[in-house]
Amino acid sequence: MAEPPAAPAAGTVSESPNREVYDEAYYGQMYHYHWFTSTPRKWRERERALFHLVEPRGDETLLDLGCARGDTSFLFAPRVARVIGLDGEPLAIDIARRRAAEQGVSNVTFVLADAGSFPEVADASIDVAGAFDFLEHVTDDVLRRMLAEARRVLRPGGRFVAYTPNREHIVERLKARNVVLHQQPDHIAVRRPREVLRFLVEAGLRVERLFYPPSAYPGYR
């Protein structure tokens, strides 16, 4: 299987509208534990939901859009033939590559590229394109371009999978109103399910499954 062209050198200027959020501290606290907002059960159920949606088949190439420091790329690496992790933040890619080397993961390639345009990934070369906890980080314009790019790189019969917060969940509604809880500064576009579906349909994708995992917040399922 051909390797994608080399990624742009680390140090490329970030194009994120909220680029100041993505610093060393941000990546250092990802997937942390908190008694209410980030319980161990939350992360276990997230993994279970991702496997349920992706259904990794062992011999596939998976594109992890907005891979950040690579956690989800590493999660799927033992279950697919190859993972390409893509992110537009140079610091994220630097951290992900360092972690891959430290962990000895050889079937993951990290590419520095914008989510709305990634010519580094060849046409019809991807079996599964995933936006795992990423849609909420991008504007509508970037999302439209990303979905068009996803269609370009997917093989015939390939799958696009999104896992994202639900704007209609009571906790997200409280965050949106800054009542008790506050919205994360990196979550600039938490959408309602019907809004996500509209973007997918407009991109020419056929929606096969809409899945709501149980709420992981204590006392609220």
Present the secondary structure layout.
Elements: H1 24-28, H2 40-54, E1 61-65, H3 71-76, E2 82-87, H4 90-103, E3 108-112, E4 126-132, H5 140-153, E5 154-163, H6 170-176, H7 193-202
Give a nutshell description of this structure:
This protein has 221 residues and is α/β, with parallel strands linked by helices. It is 32% helix and 15% strand.
**Segments where pLDDT lies below 50 for 5+ residues?**
1-11
Strand segment count: 5
**CA(first)-CA(last) distance:** 43 Å
Task: Provide the spatial order of strands within the biggest beta sheet.
Answer: 3-2-1-4-5
Shape: globular
* Proportion of helical residues: 25-40%
Structural class: alpha/beta
In round numbers, the mean pLDDT is: 87
What do you see in this structure?
This protein starts with 23 loop residues before the first helix and ends in a 19-residue tail after the last helix. It has 221 residues and is an alpha/beta fold. It has a 5-stranded parallel beta sheet.
